[in-house]
Amino acid sequence: MPQTLPRLFAARRPLRTAPRAKRRHARAVVIASLFAIAALSAGLGLAAELYPRIRDPLYGDKLAKLQAKLREPNRGPLVMMLGSSRSIFAFDAGRVEGQLREAGRSTTAFNFGVPASGPITHLLYARRLFRDGTKPDLLLLEILPSMLTDLPAGPQESRWLYADRLTHRELDTVIGLGFDAETVRGRWRESTLTPWYGLRFQLLGRVLQSWIPWTMRHDWSRTTDAHGWSTPMIQTLTAEQRATAVEQARAEYTPLLFDWKPGGPAVEAFRTLLRECRENGVPVKLVLMPEGSEFRSWYSPAVRDRLTAFVRQTAAEFGCDAIDAREWLPDDAFTDGHHQLRVGAEAFSDRLTREVILPWRKEHN
Amino acid sequence: MIATSATAFSTAFHEAAHAPERIEKARWALELPYFRWLHEQLPEPFFHTQAFLLFLLVVAVAYWTVPRRMNTARVWLLVIASFHFYAAWNASLALLVTGTTIADFFLAQLIDRGQRPRVRKLLLFASVGMNLGILCYFKYRGFFLNELHDLVGRVGFDAGYRTLSPLDIIVPFGISFYTFEAISYAVDVYRRKIRAERSLPHFLLFILFFPHLVAGPIVRAGDFLWQAHRVKRWNWLRVQVGLQLFLLGVFKKLAIADRMAVFTDGTGAQPGPFLMPELHNTSSLWLAAMAYALRIYCDFSGYSDMALGIAHLFGFKLTQNFNMPYLAANVSEFWRRWHISLSTWLRDYVFIPLGGSRAGAWVTNRNLMITMILGGLWHGANWTYVVWGLLHGLLLVIHRQFRAWSVTKPKLEAALNTWVGTAARVGLTFACVTLCWVFFRPECAKSITMLQRMFGLYDGLTLPLHNRSLWYTVLFVLLCHLLVARGLWQKFWERAPAAVLGVGYAVCLTVAMVLAPDGGKTFIYFTF
């Protein structure tokens, strides 16, 4: 070993070296490679623990944008929307901010929507934000009914919220909320011990997006505007395209909505989130997002009543307002009955500003 | 039509999803809890999994801890480790392989000792018959029974049995590889080319040695047994070579082969051109064919590199199986560079015994066709593999005739041997081989549909992934081939400082891990 280190950087002339020297060189190569493998793994593993943009770019990129907004001079109170892909496309925070400025109520608005997220993801993200000292002055919290039901296979979010996006302290939370402990711990361990493999989609999503299928990409938060809003990729749809999209949504959502009952770990997470918001002094307004007429028809009357009762009861219990925006928009404001086009986002954001945020802002000047 | 195909795709996915369950039931019906536990520890016989690396580490440490003078103990250790490696996947079949190997050992002893030609021949037939019988039972039974069923049905009779689906039959991993090893051993002993091995553990290691057990290379007794007897010292140079080969194999498998599989087989959200050719446009099918050529090469040569690398870690040198086959300037050369251990086996035990090229053009061409068809059938019990072998046989015959004609045309010969001529020949050979790969899978109808659409102008789906990464990968592979062919890599390898090489290895592994697509793909050649 003492002879190995000086040899590490010594170039060789092979034809003139003795077999013994070759063997020494080979030993140095093997040792150097083992050190390099260990160093590369440890380096990324450590960086992933320190920088959330590596482990969970969906959160990290949004956080970076939010922090940039909060660093702006003369900023007003922070109004933040936390929700799913519905919120990402719907809440045009820049537009909201502009309208409030015009109304003389300077406010910082931010869209913290994350695709394929529900109450469990929202709980984890809210905790991270609170821990980092970021507390919105008003939190608009999306209610996505399909995520709030109890499923035999565990919470629906366990299909998308993989442990490689989580920090070690968050593992117990998701396991406590019905995620499979072995899968969660195994995946987290893999992403920590072999981070270049376990976090490869996060890394590739940052540098070589076209090399991975869109379903594996983690860079959606990076492509939003400075306020966290994603402009819908499609602006106009033919009737046929819309019908196909609605059909796909039907296949995905009707099994969940037909006999919907609130319950299970997702509701537990939702309630925990509301409780922790209250404890941290963060006022919350619950928002039932707009849906097209056909999408709304997939809820049976009994389910509709159940949902209304659940929202009303929860809002009353935690002392927060509930906004039922389900019927705010016409059918042509959506791509697939629940994700909004730009025209829908503008109408929704304007009405939300007018009816919810501006009155709140006037109250809390 | 798209909807129907999509339904078929989802049915296929459903079938595939339930296949492991059904195989699992059959597999564990008679087995002991110990093997169940073993299976949980090492669920797949793949070299690039964390479980295997742990297994390798344990075996290597134990192996090198045993003192040099106890070489037989080291051999036993490797035999036991190899048995466990296979038994972790399927203990019954591991016992079967071990049992037939022991039988081969004793039969070869008898052949070697025998003096009467007729008895020796009888013993040879017994050994070859046993090996081929087991191979046919597991690998070809379903094919022949199903063909017979269809034939009998076509003439209006009831065969009296139902057809077998691939899920009804468990084909032991690597059966074609170790069967050929055992046959070549018996034949070589019969021909008195080698003496029968006297030591059972050494012979067991020859067949069962885990680096080559499931997907080759096909090892010859003459190349391996003396190595098993040789007392081995720890050698850092071997370790470096082994590590380099292993990492190269991992890179080929994860970063290239599995990545190319996304272009051929698709993702969960979209089937690829090889699964649903009827849905894809013409250019996608051509690109997918090229991706498949790259995939199968990197998949199999990657596995071979890993096998060679692991063997080096234990002081063994296995046969080189690939030598940049896509740089071959004709099909004949391609077969001297592709799956070398199989092509030389077929040459020595099929082509030459049939008469080789000694008896005129017609007989030579006939022998070539027979050899290649058998080579195709070796890969799988299906008409597509027969067609694949037939096409390669035809290409070899055409090349042979062309060669005989072109040698009489000095100007043409000179033109073909220029830089441009060679590049054109390499390109043409690659195109021919790539088109043949379209048949290298079980569904004949899909192959025909794919070829039809490749030579038309069809609209349809594009590739499941942006083709930029496909082109970059093709360019990268080409560049690597040129670096090695021009000897630049060897020069670099010999002269580079240790730190540069060490970091290079680490970066190679890191890039392989980063580029690995979702969900590991099995090795294509494991099923052969």
From TrEMBL, chain A:
Out of the domains of life, which is the source?
Bacteria
Protein name stated in the entry: SGNH/GDSL hydrolase family protein
From TrEMBL, chain B:
Q: Which UniProt keywords apply?
A: Acyltransferase, Cell membrane, Membrane, Transferase, Transmembrane, Transmembrane helix
Which cellular compartments is it found in?
Answer: Cell membrane
What InterPro entries is this protein classified in? Ac/AlaTfrase_AlgI/DltB (IPR024194), AlgI (IPR028362), MB_O-acyltransferase (IPR051085), MBOAT_fam (IPR004299)
Please name the GO terms that the record assigns under molecular function. acyltransferase activity
Q: Which organism is it from?
A: Limnoglobus roseus
Similarity remark? Belongs to the membrane-bound acyltransferase family.
Q: List all membrane-crossing ranges.
A: 46-66, 86-110, 122-140, 169-190, 202-222, 234-251, 383-402, 414-440, 470-489, 496-516
- What protein am I looking at? MBOAT family protein
Provide the topology term for how it sits in the membrane: Multi-pass membrane protein
